[in-house]
Amino acid sequence: MTSSAAPRTPRRDHTRDRLLDAAAAVFAAHGYHGASVTDVAAAAGLTKGAVYSNFRSKEELFLELLDRNVDEVVALIDGLLADRRTQRAEQLQGRLANAALFDRSWTLLELEFVLYVARNPHLARRLAERRDRTRTAIAQVVARHLAERGTADVAVAAERVARLLIAGADGLTTAALTEPDLPVTALLAALFDALERAEPSGPEPQQPAPPAAGNA
């Protein structure tokens, strides 16, 4: 197979975008395991060779798709932090309606891939690196908003808020798979409001040292 490290050109970038668009639809429709490289090529109107000339494997294709979705997540959070609190639930409803990442099929797909990665350690590091980049990008957006509000120790605060936002969104979208009436939008809006009021600052709290022997 040809390495995906070939020189990037406008034509090549266009082909990659077509393949990623097709992959998003094919994976969503058939799941990670149910989808094949042949299916993606057919959906893009290209050959199987075109897929392998841009991506080394189906795994790499999916990881690239995750990378592309980071921009959507960051833009969503940036917009929500800029929204007025009194309008946040309404604004969030509109933003989530256009966010593929909060779609049921995408949540199922991502969970399927995480389970696959958990059984394939060679992929765990690569997925962890992508999650680190996502958290860093979100923390940068949060830091900018916190700095505008005069929050102390912005870097520490932004890192905590980024972790809580990711954990909260992951938990709510997963719970919604089996609780269709779960008010995800209202709960996410409440999470944003709570994090804004918390004003986290200062170093991470340290766990108390265990008592010395004989002092218990």
Structure explained in plain terms:
- By secondary structure, the chain is an all-alpha fold.
- The longest helix is centred in the middle third of the chain and has 28 residues, at 121-148.
- The chain is built from nine helices and no strands.
- Helices cover 71% and strands 0% of the residues.
- The chain folds into two domains: 9-55, Arc Repressor Mutant, subunit A (Orthogonal Bundle); 66-198, Tetracycline Repressor, domain 2, CATH 1.10.357.
Descriptive keywords:
single chain, 216 residues, mainly alpha, Arc Repressor Mutant, subunit A, Tetracycline Repressor, domain 2, 9 helices, globular, disordered N terminus
| CATH architecture type of the largest domain | Orthogonal Bundle
Oligomeric composition of the shown chains:
single chain
Order of helices and strands: HHHHHHHHH
Q: Pick out the low-confidence regions.
A: 1-5, 200-205
Strand content: under 5%
Query: How far do the termini sit from each other?
Result: 65 Å
Radius of gyration: 21 Å
Number of helices: 9
Specify the overall morphology: globular
Q: Any idea of the CATH class of the largest domain?
A: Mainly Alpha
Largest sheet: none
Summarize the structure.
The chain has 216 residues and is mainly alpha-helical. The chain contains nine helices and no strands.
SSE order and pairing:
Layout: H1 10-34, H2 37-44, H3 48-52, H4 58-82, H5 88-97, H6 104-118, H7 121-148, H8 154-175, H9 184-198
Helix pairs in contact: 1-2, 1-4, 1-6, 4-7, 5-9, 7-8, 8-9
